[in-house]
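Regression test case RT-17, inverse folding.

Input:
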């Protein structure tokens, strides 16, 4: 009986070795999570926040960590061009809008894929935002964030009203970062 158990264990070990050595490298054929980050700077060039866009299934999980922004609620949007020329940051172009919609979650014809909730910043300049953009891809896929001319994240002077075109009456662009 002991001899059969040892032979069975040896056979399983050999079988396991064959299974692990089937010619396919583990994880090499699996899709890797795509991530892009942006160092968000104000018009004076000071770093005031960071943004991370990570692929999560068929959505992008976006987070912003503000560390030096003015107190209050600020519109935050993903823009379609990866350029942040100060002081006005208009080089970032319009909101990322591959679906051709209007602005804001409260707009009956909205919303852009680049429309985000307001980031609320405390008296210490710190604020965070976490948001999921459904049906979006950091790179590749049918609606990639990182296309030929890249993408940027822009923070505005005031709060977004979530319905007015083109940017929710959120005021001037006060900070911008290019996704890389």
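Golden output:
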């Amino acid at each position: 009986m002991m001899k059969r158990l040892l032979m069975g264990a040896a056979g399983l070990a050999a079988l396991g070795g064959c299974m692990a050595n089937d010619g396919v490298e583990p994880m090499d054929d699996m899709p890797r999570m795509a991530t892009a980050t942006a160092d968000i700077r104000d018009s004076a060039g000071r770093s005031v926040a960071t943004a991370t866009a990570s692929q999560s299934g068929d959505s992008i999980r976006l987070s912003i960590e503000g560390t030096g922004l003015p107190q209050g609620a600020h519109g935050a949007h993903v823009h379609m061009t990866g350029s942040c020329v100060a002081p006005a940051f208009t080089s970032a172009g319009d909101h990322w809008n591959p679906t051709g919609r209007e602005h804001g979650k409260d707009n009956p014809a909205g919303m852009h894929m680049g429309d985000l909730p307001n980031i609320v910043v405390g008296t210490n300049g710190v604020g965070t935002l976490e948001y999921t953009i459904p049906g979006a891809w950091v790179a590749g896929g049918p609606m990639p964030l990182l296309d030929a001319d890249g993408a940027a994240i822009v923070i505005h002077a005031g709060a977004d009203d979530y319905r007015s075109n083109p940017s929710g009456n959120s005021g001037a662009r006060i900070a911008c970062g290019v996704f890389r």
